[in-house]
Amino acid sequence: MSKLQNLLEDVKKKNPGEVEFHQAVEEVLTSLEPLVEKEPQYFKTGLIERFCEPERQIMFRVPWFDDEGNARTNRGFRIQFSSALGPYKGGLRFHPSVYLGVVKFLGFEQILKNSLTGLAIGGGKGGSDFDPKGKSDNEIMRFCQSFMTELYRHIGDSVDVPAGDIGVGSREIGYLYGQYKRIRGAFENGVLTGKGLVYGGSLVRKEATGYGLMYFVKEMIEDNGHSLEGKRIVVSGSGNVATYACEKAEQYGAKVVAMSDSNGFIHDEGGISLDTVKQIKEFERGRIKDYLKYHPQASYHAVDSSDKKSIWSIPCDIALPCAVQNEIGMSEAKMIVENGAIALGEGANMPTTNEAVKFLVEKGILLAPAKAANAGGVATSALEMSQNDMRINWTFEEVDQKLNDIMVNIYKSSKEAAKEYGFDKNYVVGANIAGFKRVAQAMLEQGVV
């Protein structure tokens, strides 16, 4: 058993039951094998062991009142994983699935994702098992105020800068910041990103993760002799990441033929009407099946339908999983390969199991890993922090160009690292090594901290 395998077993023992965190650590440690063989000082200094241990784990009670006056209680989390490169940076997720293992996996991935951007941001993540679905605006506001009443003491624009994630959009960020400002008695808008434009938010933030995904995918497939023009794309999800990945893909001449939500997926062979999806999701707050009211020629397949059809059974050239972690296992990966796909771009965090990732790479699929391909959101959050610091606002075009440049550089650094360590075109290995080396260098220079 290798030293890194021993370390993985130790991580599992120290963090029992946190299967998502175990999976994330396993993927990274496996990728670091060629680095450690070539440069053993990374292991001998205990640096990799420290890298797998959060600097701080914060867990707290969040009491609030619903509209009927009933006292409710949820659990809140903030994992401050690594500050080697800058203040902790990472989103807040409000979803019933949130527990310590999910937050730690997201925070661990965030270290490498943030490192790859080349910007001065460390890695962190947070959230709550609170479910915003079905809650009134007042209930969400009361919850956010209670959540921030505890969180405020652990964050700051040079300490820890949260943003949004699943279940946390500009509405929730507004409520959170309002409570922070009330407690602090100061206008410190750099403490949160994903804000409304009128009080310091950045243009392109809503589009950033989806756009960034396509900037990475475009660079990757063009570098390997392909073009997006005319390509068939299947996208899971229909939130911001999926929506704006679709928008950018269409601008590049590709055709999106399927999208989904947690209840099922739609298939429109003529090409998904993105305007309709935006109308349903952003204004009506409806479900993806409502697409058929406007486009009856499309088909809808529910998750609990008798045929159990998967969105990944739809033939495509490029698969973009933009929904949740581990949505692509071996059976889905085999469908994607059998249907002749050339590439897969991970818009969600860890949407593909480790087994499926290995299979897809072995089959020659160009795989854009999440920590590299979906870094556009946090990159633009860091650009928002810069604008807040300077008290200026960049135009949409300025931010978009900076985002494009960052994503192209992430692709290049992932490509070069993969090639240097003998894994040419394996961008999973390349992204992990490139991201890790930057953090590791900072840790080495700062001593045992």
Automatic annotation (TrEMBL):
Record lineage: Bacteria, Bacillati, Bacillota, Clostridia, Peptostreptococcales
Positions with a binding annotation for NAD(+): 209, 240
GO biological process, one term: glutamate biosynthetic process
Family (UniProt): Belongs to the Glu/Leu/Phe/Val dehydrogenases family.
Stated name of the protein: Glutamate dehydrogenase
Entry-linked PANTHER family: NADP-SPECIFIC GLUTAMATE DEHYDROGENASE 1-RELATED
Gene Ontology terms, MF aspect: glutamate dehydrogenase (NADP+) activity; nucleotide binding
Family matches, as SUPFAM superfamilies: Aminoacid dehydrogenase-like, N-terminal domain, NAD(P)-binding Rossmann-fold domains
Start and end residues of each Glutamate/phenylalanine/leucine/valine/L-tryptophan dehydrogenase C-terminal domain: 202-447
